[in-house]
Write a structure and sequence with these properties.
single chain; about 425 residues; Immunoglobulin-like; six-stranded mixed β-sheet; about 45% strand
Length: about 425
């Protein structure tokens, strides 16, 4: 038996709001409790929502929301065991805090709060929709319907919420007789119709067991013709990491790698050289990377991984700096890669740099003799030069001693002949 539940909502959103969300980073141990805070001062925005974005997941999951007032039912079913909401949405400074109790490693995620305008149901706008629909697996089709009685409703949407809790947009309509099906859903399976401005239907054909879900029809009242009232305003987000008790907090090892041999062989002055900074073997993954040249921050030519990558139990992140050849060969330049690491209490910088002394020598070898110079090659050349120089000095000393001995012998023979 295929069961489908669906509801109809009247919603609205607004832009231009300053949201204050803090802290930005939290590191805590399993079993403990953390509290995240969110507030704003926009009178008409009486709705505050909290979302979770897990590592590697592109979707935001709704944890819960406050709508003028809230209670235990304001937290979504899958989050009720460990998540609590508290705050004040009636005062001038509206706030809604999110508490996470009995922390687990799987609670590691980035958390966002958002706000939107509260459009309450009124006698002027009535929405009618059957509460449920039951069909058998394999039936040709099932049709979901939604109807409202306002001519001010321009946009209507159909959403699908599977048992995992994720909400996916299936289709939307901006006006009468106009609709679109969103990927990954397709027109051969789903059809949205809107023959009248006030009514919409979503047809699923054929109906299969995997289509079991809660389907939401959302209507947005848009007096500004969707110019600025169709999006929620998000805060900056809070990155939460629940520490694995079996992995100790470990700072990063930072290393700069010089331009590759291939780049060094390229003598085109218009092309740039690339410095590679690698921070590895750290835990947790609360890091930021930036570059300096001679003590000043560099932003142009910097490309850093969007997030640290996990390798077994520790993390690794890389950053690349592209610099013009004339800057690379300037012996007065010193490049530093700095990795800021947050251990749950303090932010600490770890760095590596390129010394100018190395640059002076590779300039001569690279530009005058057209030799592709890498750090390893340079070290081998200089080491060989030191050995050769030492051998030359020893030979010179031996040769000098030998010459002195011959001179002394010759002088001795001449003295005897005179006598």
């Amino acid at each position: 038996m295929l069961s489908i539940l669906f509801f109809c909502y009247l919603t609205g959103f607004s832009l231009g709001i300053d949201i204050h969300q803090f802290p930005s980073n939290v590191i805590s141990k399993t079993g403990s409790e953390v509290v995240l805070f969110c507030s704003h001062e926009q009178a008409s925005h009486r709705v505050i929502l909290w979302y979770q974005k897990s590592p590697g997941d592109e979707d935001l999951k709704l944890i819960g929301y406050g709508y003028g007032q809230f209670n235990n039912d304001s937290v979504e079913e899958t989050f009720k065991k460990h998540f609590r909401l508290d705050g004040d949405l009636q005062s001038a400074k509206k706030n809604l805090s999110l508490s996470i109790v009995g922390l687990k490693v799987e609670h590691t995620a980035t958390y966002y709060c958002a706000t939107r305008e509260a459009h309450y149901f009124s006698d002027a706008v009535n929405i009618h929709q059957p509460p449920s629909e039951l069909v058998r697996d394999g039936e040709q089709s099932v049709t979901l319907k939604c109807e409202q009685d306002s001519d001010q409703i321009y946009y209507m949407y159909w959403y699908r919420q599977a048992s995992s809790g994720e909400m996916e947009l299936v289709a939307y309509s901006a006006s009468k007789d106009a609709s679109s099906i969103e990927a990954p859903f397709n027109n051969s399976k789903y059809t949205m119709t809107r023959r009248e401005l006030r009514r919409t239907e979503l047809q699923i054909h054929p109906a299969e067991a995997k289509d079991s879900a809660v389907y939401y029809s959302v209507s947005i009242t848009d007096s500004a013709h969707c110019a600025s009232t169709s999006e929620a305003i998000f805060g900056g987000g809070t990155k939460l990491t629940v520490l694995d008790k079996n992995i100790p907090i470990t700072p990063p090892k930072v290393k700069i790698f010089y331009p590759s041999e291939k780049e060094c062989r390229d003598y085109d002055r218009k092309k740039k050289r690339t410095l590679l900074c690698v921070a590895s073997d750290f835990y947790p993954d609360h890091v930021s990377v930036y570059w300096k040249r001679n003590g000043r921050n560099i932003t142009n030519g910097v490309a850093t991984d969007p997030a640290a990558k996990k390798e077994e139990k520790k993390y690794k992140i890389t950053s690349r700096l592209k610099i013009p050849l004339e800057e690379w060969v300037d012996p007065n330049n010193k490049y530093t890669c700095i990795v800021t690491f947050f251990d749950g209490k303090n932010y600490t910088d770890y760095n590596d740099n390129i010394e100018g002394l190395f640059l002076k020598h590779i300039i001569i070898l690279n530009l005058l003799f057209k030799i592709a110079i890498t750090r390893g090659y340079y070290m081998r050349v200089t080491q060989n030069a030191k050995v050769s120089y030492t051998v030359l000095i020893v030979k010179s000393c031996v040769y000098g001693a030998f010459v002195c001995f011959l001179v002394w012998k010759l002088q001795g023979k001449r003295g005897k002949q005179r006598k």
